[in-house]
Design brief:
Elements: E1 9-12, H1 18-29, E2 33-38, H2 41-55, E3 59-63, H3 69-79, E4 84-87, H4 102-130, E5 133-138, H5 151-171, E6 176-183, H6 189-202, H7 206-215, H8 225-235, E7 247-250
Parallel strand pairs: 1-2, 1-4, 2-3, 4-5, 5-6, 6-7
Helix pairs in contact: 1-2, 1-8, 4-5, 6-7
Amino acid sequence: MDLGIKGKRALVCAASKGLGRGCAMALAEAGVDLVINARGAEALEATATEIRNRHGVTVTAIAADITTEAGRANVLEAAGSVDILVTNAGGPPPGMWSDWSREDFIKALDANMLTPIALMQALMPGMMDRGWGRVVNITSQSVKAPIGALGLSNTARTGLTGFVAGTARQVAGKGVTVNNLLPGIHATDRAISLDAAMAKTQGITPAEATARRAATIPAGRYGTAEEFGAMCAFLCSMHAGFIVGQNILLDGGAINATL
């Protein structure tokens, strides 16, 4: 399918690895020029080089911490005017509700709620002026069904979901769509980290932890960054203009719900 976005320009955050990388790759395959961001310069430049070589699009790599004001300023300056925004940041660490301080919550909110909001506020006015834009926020399945050990993530990402719910309806008439992608367990560094934490608390091996979590998914496996990226690219396409303010699960059926 021709997504109709060849020649568009996108900013993809946390794009050096995992789901962000999957989104960047899929957009590049559709002919989108990219500004990609991550904290680690070496991995980011390696991803940029691979995308250029594979898809022949223009890729600008900006190593910065997008969750800080200075980092966002650097990225936004390099990005300039973009048609597509994909927000993404690593989730906060797992733990127990009784362990978290006010500072822990503020850090989680900064990374997983306030940063995507700041990026939308910076870039959506230009999209609205031009009459076309796409925003995809990578959140989590936890906004549909909370995960006990991920209370910090539950809190921050649900807050972002509420912001998007109202905002998406306000900008849709200007040709800008805002939607959220809710990943379940995917084969990324984040999954490896959570499996390791589970293994430690339960006294099992990481491989056993992975097998146990995969068994909870009706699809019987973890998702891939490639299939996640394909969905992101579709939401950014010319065909997705009537999808507004939605929370789309990619979880292999793990959330057992009718709606």
